[in-house]
């Protein structure tokens, strides 16, 4: 256990050194590449305006998302009614998908309650 802690500390030290040396240049490069997204007058009023634009844009996209949801549900209904014609690959993908969703739900519950997956507290 002590050797794992030392390894973790050495890796953290290397990462810290790398960020200290290259962090500012990376920050500047990312800002330069994405400067067309930066608002030139970053005032509180402008931020509130952009926030409202985002909210109402998302609100306006709801009807399209609602239609897409019903198209997906109709497709799923067709697959359920024609389940005798399902390929084994499609069935396997569906089972894996639902299994993964269930697993994420269970892991989320465990972690959300403060537990760990292994049972050991760190």
Automatic annotation (TrEMBL):
It is found in: Mitochondrion membrane. Belongs to the ATPase g subunit family. Keywords: ATP synthesis, CF(0), Hydrogen ion transport, Ion transport, Membrane, Mitochondrion, Transport. InterPro entries: ATP_synth_F0_gsu_mt. The keyword Membrane applies. This is ATP synthase subunit g, mitochondrial.
């Amino acid at each position: 256990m002590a050797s794992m802690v030392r390894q973790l500390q050495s890796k953290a030290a290397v990462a810290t050194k790398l960020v200290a040396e290259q962090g500012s240049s990376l920050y500047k490069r990312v800002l330069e590449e994405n400067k067309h997204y930066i608002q030139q007058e970053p005032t509180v009023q402008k931020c509130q305006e952009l926030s409202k634009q985002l909210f109402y844009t998302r609100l306006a996209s709801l009807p399209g998302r609602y239609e897409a949801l019903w198209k997906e549900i109709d497709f799923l209904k067709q697959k359920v009614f024609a389940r005798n014609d399902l390929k084994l690959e499609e069935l396997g993908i569906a089972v894996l998908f639902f299994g993964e969703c269930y697993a994420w739900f269970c892991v989320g519950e465990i972690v959300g309650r403060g537990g760990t997956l292994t049972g050991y507290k760190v």
